[in-house]
Design goal:
3 copies of one chain form a homotrimer. Helices cover 26% and strands 37% of the residues of chain A. Chain A is α+β, with helices and mostly antiparallel strands. The first copy, chain A, has a single domain, classed as YjbQ-like (Jelly Rolls). Chains in contact: A-B, A-C, B-C. At the A-C interface, strand 3, helix 3 and strand 8 of A face strand 4, helix 2 and strand 5 of C.
């Protein structure tokens, strides 16, 4: 089954964007009842994470912590000046897998799926691929 | 194939619990010979990791390092006061994939699968889903 | 389909090694047109990451940041003295999933797949497993 693409424009340098509904929509379109859904990031200064989406302050706290761990003013070698974003991308990771059961994306009660923008604003794509089984 | 659920009660605020044997048991029950096993965490203040399980000090060192990186007394926005646990969950990650070969979970010699509790003690579930192939 | 193994020798204590071409080679050999490719690390002081491979300074910056976050001279409990490597392995993670489409590993324009050596030099193996779907 071909992967579908979620496209969006980020608005800030660092931002968590809730893409749960768009991932659910992509899963619905496949009509798959049981399987795995992969959410895959093709960019190297952004990532995918799962965290609480009930209170948006959680996402802001994640970003604040990442900025404290890898401050923007640290001197790095990469000439583009966005090494902190590349490093955060490797820490958070480029893909997540989710269970599909009875046609439903099996998330915990408080879980949402987030695109993590670490070097925006930019146009970003995320791929959603479903495997039956 | 339907996912199975591992339920357990954590005893401490931060704790690594070795769930390797329970994941192996869930894989055995599926009778799948070759495929992939997903271990998925439905909570937002806990995570799944793979690390050495021969010496339990390794797990304690991982927790100590996480506490140094994201100290509990850091001021964050989220009113529940457990932002450090949410942040650690995003750093360590909510899912892991393992290879199944000849009916055996293919782990490295020193690898074990751990539930990372970052905001316990609590009742926690972990889902194990197997795909043939 | 049986997993294939990529074997290599790392040369430094901390090092990122681009294994993209070897992963592509392993995928080509399976003749799978559509599916998922898993890259899985069986060691506990090394990891798999995805990041920019156009400029090798990005990988060096990732390693430098990891050394700042988890300095080698921090006192830990594990008697082998390589706890920082174990901790980095849990932060970066032991597996990554990639989409295969039309027989091609679907990576972003700037993405490469890296073995992260955190406690070398050593002989290391990486498993590549492909699932059709």
């Amino acid at each position: 089954m071909i992967a579908s693409k979620i496209s969006l424009t980020t608005r800030m340098r660092s931002e968590l964007i809730d893409i749960t509904d768009r991932v659910r929509g992509a899963v619905d379109q496949t009509k798959v009842k049981d399987g795995i859904c992969y959410v895959v990031m093709p960019h190297t200064t952004a990532a995918i994470t799962v965290n609480e989406n009930a209170d948006p302050s959680v996402g802001r706290d994640v970003l604040k912590a990442m900025d404290r761990l890898i401050p923007w003013d640290t001197i790095f070698e990469h000439a583009e000046g966005n090494s902190p974003a590349h490093i955060k991308a490797s820490i958070v990771g480029s893909d997540k897998a989710f269970i599909i059961e009875n046609g439903i994306l099996k998330l915990g009660q408080w879980q949402g799926i987030f695109l993590c923008e670490f070097d925006g604003p930019r146009q970003r794509d995320v791929f959603v691929k479903v495997i039956e089984g």
